[in-house]
Amino acid sequence: MQKPISTLFMRGGTSRGPFFNQADLPTDPKQRDRILLAVMGSPDRRQIDGLGGGNPLTSKVGIVGKGTTPGIDLTFLFAQVVPDKPIVDTSPNCGNMLAAVVPFALETGIVSPQGETSTFRVLTLNTDMQCDITVQTPNGQVAYEGHVRIDGVPGTAAPITINFLDTAGSVCAELLPTGNVMDSVELPGMGRLDVTCIDNGMPLVIMRAADVGRTGREPVADLNADIELKTRLEALRLHCGYLMGLGDVAQKTYPKMCLIAPPVNGGSIATRCFIPHVCHDAIGVLAAVTVGTACVLTGSVADGVAQLPEGALKRVSVEHPSGEFSVDLALSADDPQRVEKAALLRTARLIMRGEVMVPIP
């Protein structure tokens, strides 16, 4: 026998996956995670028996609920389901899937349209972070068609604006969890390497690609086949996990690892991000925010590599394998090392609505 659960299958930014109303899933995390593994078809590299796409970007789940505290309209719990392991990670956030939260809530009646545009405050339960998300709702309907293009997604769509309110220290204790804007790390047989350990929405370990003998412009397939580099990055990730106060991260999907290099296509910085063991075809939303933040911090590994505009409000164009991602960062007038606001533009689309069948056992 199988149990049907209502779902909307949605694209958010450059990711996609099923979205659920929180009320339709068990409150017990272990039972909920067993259901999500069955929904996605994990553990199996192909995820052939579920909705997953066999890739971290297409093995994501969104769980949306109505806000229960003053000022909060919606809650969002993101779940990263590992394709080939029985792991459901609800520790990090996902800014791409976040773009589909308000469209899902409007489509399912959790909230109602406010006019030509609708803005709702969302609390991400993973990291206790708040953001204001604005979508277009002409005639009381979510607009998906529009003229906004984001790299990594074919065609154009209606804009979705995300204003992050408090991203610093989303998983770690603070923006710079080691207490330093740059650390010099030495591992046995690997030499010394300068890194910036930072969390402005996503815990990242950032290093200059040249310092590991790479250009930062390599194709994704080449980096995924680069066993020597991936082995070195994983050893570094495990070490930095302790430095960042995250403990043993062997079974966690964070911190992500990011190689940076000078821009080549008119942007601010070039990146190749590992999430954490596979090179991202683009870059995650919150990873882009965090990389952009490192770019504006004096003394980070990006200092002297990034090319930035003048002024307190900086638009950082983060180049990635399939294009670029622009982030607007507002620096504090009192503390030039503190980012007061991060804003960006995404798109989303409802792909399918219906029921997913879950084996009762």
Question: What keywords describe this structure?
Answer:
Diaminopimelate Epimerase, Chain A, domain 1, 17 strands, globular, single chain, 17-stranded mixed beta sheet
Written overview of the protein:
The protein is an alpha+beta fold and 361 residues long. The protein has 2 domains: 2-167 and 347-359, Diaminopimelate Epimerase, Chain A, domain 1 (Roll), CATH 3.10.310.10; 183-337, Diaminopimelate Epimerase, Chain A, domain 1, CATH 3.10.310.10. The chain is 16% helix and 35% strand. The chain has 6 helices and 17 strands. It has a 17-stranded mixed sheet that branches. Strand 15 (323-331) and strand 16 (339-346) form a beta hairpin. It starts with a strand and ends with a strand. The model has no long low-confidence stretch (mean pLDDT 94).
Please render the helix and strand layout as text.
Blueprint: E1 2-12, E2 15-21, H1 29-40, E3 60-66, E4 74-81, E5 88-89, H2 95-98, H3 101-107, E6 117-124, E7 129-136, E8 160-164, E9 183-187, E10 191-199, E11 203-208, H4 220-224, H5 227-243, E12 256-261, E13 269-274, H6 285-296, E14 313-320, E15 323-331, E16 339-346, E17 348-359
Parallel strand pairs: 2-3, 4-6, 11-12, 13-14
Antiparallel strand pairs: 1-2, 1-17, 3-4, 4-5, 6-7, 7-8, 8-16, 9-10, 10-11, 12-13, 14-15, 15-16
